[in-house]
Each structure stands twice: as structure tokens, then as C-alpha cells.
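Exercise: predict the fold of this chain.
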Amino acid sequence: MSESWTLNSTEIFPPKDFQAAAAACGIKPSGLDVALLYSTRPCWGAAVFTTNAVKAAPVEVSQRHLVEGGGALQAMIINSGNANACTGEPGMAAARAMAEATARALNVPVQRILVCSTGVIGVLLPADRITARLDDLKLGLSSEGLGAAARAILTTDTTPKVCSAEASINGRPVRIAGMTKGAGMIHPQMATTLGFVLTDAAIGPALLQRSLEQACRLSYNRISVDGDTSTNDTLAIMANGGSGIPDIEPDSPAQELFVEGLTRVCQSLAQQVVRDGEGASKFVTIRVTGASSEENAARIARSIANSPLVKTALAGEDANWGRIICAAGYAGVPFDSRRVSIYLGDLAVCREGGAVDFEESRASEILRQRDIELTVHLNFGSSDATFWTCDLTTEYIHINADYRT
């Protein structure tokens, strides 16, 4: 069994027996805005959804389908440009219509269809524009269609976000491929934004769900752009067994390797979201070490990542470490501030909870970089966590002030 995965974060290569298509249906003013992902063979699916109490119609429909279908999944229909959220019963009818039209076109049970939407909240989705194009989407399905699908799901993103990975499991090549979207309204606590993963591994729905949750915890749940959790957040996976490997068993070496690959793909996708954060000029890796538990380390890292004062200091290239220790302090996690050390890259800016004499010119040099590492040593335990965020610039304000217009 291979010990590692070959990862490609710039191209998406289809796992066996998966196809995709995209179309311009007039949901956005221009360009591709609907994607269809399809497995030519029945497969199992799993997903994690937004923890926001306000859930968009497609989220509710998709959650119901996964339960009613017992985890069987064969296609995903996704539109951008309209979130179909806070649209009442007409919105539910629109989401159901998308699923039903997709099921008819593909001749599969409607419970095997996942529906996802992204875009403006509070505007009714013109589902008829999508349902009228389902036959065209079906005819356009091909193994080369994933790239177009990755472009069709974008909103304020400046670039598609894709990743592919391949390894040998039980002597056969297995592929995991994913696409994601998101640049704003990005905050952890499930799967932030929309993400879609396909694999030709053979794995049952319960274990697939567990594996996805494990990968999500260390990827999508470790990113933040602006601290806002969307009404539509969905991370979904389909596994069709096209590789020909035997079913992956729980707690087996094969499952461990599969989770490693899935986590690496999800981490790449999640980090690409942060790199494309609305108005972002910095990609920031926050490492919290020496915490009493991994959960506490992650809570502190999340608090730092979401602090507007920290994010604006990073945008201004100001080594204001007081904002960092302050954000750690209100995370609701016990630690002794007199033990804390803080580093920007390899430069110590705080030791034992107090100031150290550091060269401002060296700090400015570090903060001028596109990629910045910020490390907080708590010296209060043996656990650690890593989080990814970006800075907050005036461009973020301009983008979101004009989002609907």
C-alpha cells in the first residue's frame, strides 16, 4: 500500500466513471452559472452543511434527500448567482424543481440528487431557466467537463479552485478530485462555502460520512476570511467504487490512507479559498502550540483569525502583537498569559507575555510577504492546531458594499 498521495492543486482530473457539464442559464448577468456533476454508476454520498440557523432551501432539500435515500447519491446540480435563501415556500419549490428535473434527465431517483445554490440571499431563484437546460446539460456530460463546472460555481471568486490526488490502495490506483468556491462570507464551523469532492474509492455511506467529517475538521473548519457563516454552506462527496478496490473497512490501513488523501484535498481547496479572500493581500498561517487540548488550540487560533484588529494590522504590515494576545485572551480558553510567546515568522515579538526588543525593519520585511506565519506558543500543554486566514483590506469593503449592484 502506498504511503503517500500525489497532489495537484492546479488541475482537476476526473476519477473513473464521473462526468460533468456546465451551462450559462441566465442566473448571473453573464458567463457559466450552472454545473452538473454525475456518476455513471450508483454511488454513496455524504455531506456536511451550514450550522447557521437560517438554512437555504437547497440545504434543506439536500439534507432530506440524503436521509430518504439512505446515503445513495448519483448527481449534484449547482447554480451560482442566486442563493435561493430566505425565499419561503417558493424557494423550496424551486429547489425541488431543480432536483426533480435533474432526476428525470438522468433517469435516477430524485433522492439521489443533491441541490446547491450560491449567490445573493433573499431573491427567488428562477428555477425554470435551469430546468429548461437540463437536457442540454445531460448531453454535455463528459469526463473533461470538471474544469467548466469549477468555473460555473464561482461568484466573487477571481479564479477556479480545484485539486486532484492519486494513490494506490490495495494495489489499485484511487483518485480523489475536488472543486470549491468562496471568497467572502467565509467562516468555519462545518464546511464553509461550497465544496464538491468525487472519488472512485469504494466506501460505504456511514464510513464516508465519518471520513468527510474528519477531513472537514482539519480543513474547511480551519479557515476564515471575514467571520460570516453562510446560509448555504455545503461540503459534499460522492464515492462510486469505479477504481475496483474492495470496500474500505472501518479503522483499516486503507481507511487511514483514504482519510489522509481526502484531508489533503480538502485542505488544498480550503486554503485556495483563503488565498482568494475578497480583497485579501496576505495569506496567513496561524499556529497555536502548547495548548491544553487540540480543541482549545483551534479556538484560540480561530479567535485570532477572526479579529478585525489583527487582520487590519496585518493589512497595514504593523507588528502589533498586543492585538494577537488580546484575541487569544477572549477565546474562552484557559491559559497563563505570562507563559505566552508570539512569533512573526522566525522573529520573536513577545516572550512570557511581555514585549521583547525586536527590529521593526525585520518585522516589516516579514509582514510585506504574501505568505505570513504567525505562531503563538502558550506553553500550557502539549496540543496544537493550525488555522488559515487572510488580512482585511479596504477592497473587501468595496466588494461587499456593492455586492448586489
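Check your answer against the key: The chain has a mean pLDDT of 93.
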